[in-house]
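[Automated response] Your request has been received and processed.

Submitted sequence:
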Amino acid sequence: MRKSFITALIIVMCLPVLSACWNQKELTDLAFVMALGIDRGKDNKFNVSFQIVIPGNVSLMQGGGAGQGLPIAIYSSTGDTLTEAARSVTKKVSRRLYYAHTNLIVFSEEIAKNGLLNIMDALDRDPEFRTTTQMVITRGTPAEVLVSSLANLDKLPVNKITKEIKVTEAMLGENMQINIDDFLAGLVSDGIEPVVNGFRVIGDIEMAGKAKDLQNTKTKAILAADGLAVFKKGKLIGWIEHENARGVVWILNKVKSTDVNINWNGKKKAISMATIRTKTKVSAKVNKGKPVIQIAIEDEGWISEANTDVDLTNPKEIEKIDKLIEKEIKKQILTTVKEAQKMKCDIFGFGERVHRKDPKLWKKIKANWDEQFAELEVNVKVDSYTRREGIRTNPYWKDLKQ
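Generated structure:
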């Protein structure tokens, strides 16, 4: 009897500990923050914009409903810190802000130039905020405008931006997915500096965020990826754009697919090759006490366009095309390296390679790596192979010539 009583008492005492609902949150009490925009406000305060999803409107719009309201609501608040701004906005929002679904954080160019070191700690420390959240820097527009903008194909603007980065990474190779973890790794690691995707509003900025703009087949305000922001010691120091941005992605071995154009028969950009597989290997060696970087690229592609007379059934012609492709890729890579060397900012991680190769040498040159990087010898070797020519061999240009 005594043993049964003690067992029952232990079970009763354990019930509060075993409860599964001690930290429950009702969905109707939460406001899901999908994106954050951070601008510089008055008196050097942070002006933070919160993109909050309206679930009912999103589901109605996806189901074909019309006139049911916008899918998001934007609330803004200011504070000396992000924590203060986030708590101050609760005076305007009737629900508790919930950050577990936040997919994007947008920094204005002004904020980035002043430095992100004092901002990143709040994002990295909050257990509810995911460090896999993507980052972008606005160009020519406030972060609030980007967060407030609407899109046609994707009902949630945050999805438009994150998907656009993913698609352009897969098809063009001038941008890549960069999250908070990636940025922090670049900040704290020796021998590498971080880069972040740039975004801007193209067209009429005043129309961004207005529902009537979505009624046009061609919207007047379009969100577009635009270059890579280069950071040094946590501050934005410049931009790398177009083919130079592609060179950065190529060196970092993040290119999934892109296009390379070459001249043929005196015609500029007559032949286009679309990359289907590519691999980049970066290594370091020491020559006469100085570090030397070796970049080796293996590229496979297919002829996606041939706007000139060329015999694609001739192996010698294909070999000639491959050599020209190799030359063009090498040119793009070296131009990108020189652009970064002008900024004296190692965004490629060359310093990390030197550290791994010769720790003693790295210890000597680490303090002066920026200057060393600016004068660093970089060699590039490219091996390109054309694997197929599309659904036809010779272009119709050959028949026209005959």
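Summary generated for your ticket: The first strand starts at residue 30 and ends at 40. The mean pLDDT is 87.
If you did not submit this request, please reply to this message.
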